[in-house]
Specification:
The chain has 16 helices and 2 strands. It is mainly alpha-helical and 333 residues long. It folds into 3 domains: 1-52 and 71-104, Rna Polymerase Sigma Factor, Chain: A; 109-128 and 142-216, no CATH class; 229-327, no CATH class. Strands 1-2 form a two-stranded parallel sheet. Residues 239-243 have low confidence and may be disordered. GO terms for molecular function: homoserine O-acetyltransferase activity; oxidoreductase activity; serine O-acetyltransferase activity. This is Aldehyde dehydrogenase domain-containing protein. Pfam families: Aldedh.
Length: 333
């Protein structure tokens, strides 16, 4: 937020009739993007790989690459792209106010009293059992309900409890008879796992015996909760699919560029071009599930969303028919 407000174009929020603070927005987004993942995950995705030089700057084997005051590493180009996209989509003042509201959010008892808010009393007792559990012959008595709902990943009690923990427990007392699930992510640097442990500890101090606390592993940082490692539709685990190395991909792209530059494609008969494009589209459609899984692992977005996006990105049968019709010929199957 401070980086954004330091942009001269912010003008204390009165920028709507002039240039918006694009530089501040871009830098804010780059900083935020780093916090959404973890160092090990950035290293797995990008390592120390350098960006590929454009065609105008061919790399000579006999001459080492000269560093420049611009993005040299792939991770830098990725962050630059994220910043550029963000600064053109969102309003700076809206981001500042939402961020400020999040910073001021406080559930400790003194903070609630200062705002003139009186927390409601706790439930009189545990909530009723869910219908699926209540219908079971071995359903427990309500007094034993907390034994079913109180699970936890073992973590040691804090050696130096934060001074605000009793106040937080007092603020969370209305939840003392409400089942609560607290999840933390071990690689999260945006909301460190210690904060989730504090929430679980405060709830228990408040008298809640139905607190379930777990920590998620993985290297995806704060975005871990967005990643479908297991498809809820069929229970299938999503795993890394190694189809080709980065070098293989770069060589394929380079070869394709060379073919187009040499004019080979334009000299190819229409029937052959249509055959190639049709077969390519068919192959892409066949690989949609695999491509969606790889995109999920790469971006952290839901696999269902990636399935739809990848499918839209591929050339569908309608497009194939258009290609065939434009070529004025039948495609060999």
């Amino acid at each position: 937020m401070l980086v954004l407000m330091a942009d001269p174009n912010w003008k204390k929020g009165f920028y709507y009739d002039d240039l918006p603070p694009h530089t501040g927005m871009k830098l804010a987004r780059q900083i935020a993007t780093i916090t959404y993942r973890s160092g090990p995950e950035w290293d797995m995705r990008f390592g120390r790989n350098l960006r590929k030089l454009p065609d105008a700057e061919p790399q000579r084997p006999d001459k080492p690459r000269t560093p420049a005051l611009c993005p040299d590493f792939l991770i830098e180009t990725y962050l630059d792209h994220q910043g550029e996209e963000f600064c053109l989509k969102y309003d700076a003042n809206s981001l500042i106010y939402i961020s400020k509201a999040m910073d001021l959010f406080d559930l400790t008892a003194p903070a609630l009293i200062e705002l003139g808010l009186e927390p409601p009393p706790p439930r009189a007792g545990p909530p009723p059992l869910p219908p699926s559990l209540a219908a079971h012959q071995a359903s427990p008595m309500p007094s034993q309900y907390h034994h079913l709902l109180s699970h936890s990943k073992s973590h040691p009690p804090p050696t130096n409890p934060p001074v605000h923990l009793p106040d937080l427990a007092a603020g969370l007392r209305p939840l003392s008879n409400t089942p609560v699930l607290v999840l933390g992510v071990q690689s999260d640097i945006l909301f460190p796992v210690e904060q989730q442990r504090e929430v679980a500890d405060a709830l228990r101090i408040a008298g809640n015996q139905m607190v379930s606390y777990y920590e998620l592993g993985g290297v995806w940082g704060h975005d871990t909760f967005l990643i479908d490692l297991k498809n809820p539709a069929n229970g299938e685990h999503v795993s890394t699919i190694v189809c080709a190395s980065q070098e293989d991909v770069e060589n394929a792209v380079f070869s394709a560029h060379e073919v187009f530059k040499a004019g080979v494609w334009s000299k190819t008969p229409a029937v052959h071009r249509a055959t190639v494009l049709s077969n390519l589209a068919r192959d892409l459609e066949d690989r949609v599930p695999d491509l969606a899984k790889m995109e999920t692992l790469q971006t952290g977005r839901a696999i269902r969303e990636m399935n739809a996006q990848v499918r839209l990105s591929c050339i569908h049968s309608d497009s194939r028919e258009y290609i065939i019709e434009s070529a004025g010929c039948k495609v060999a199957r």
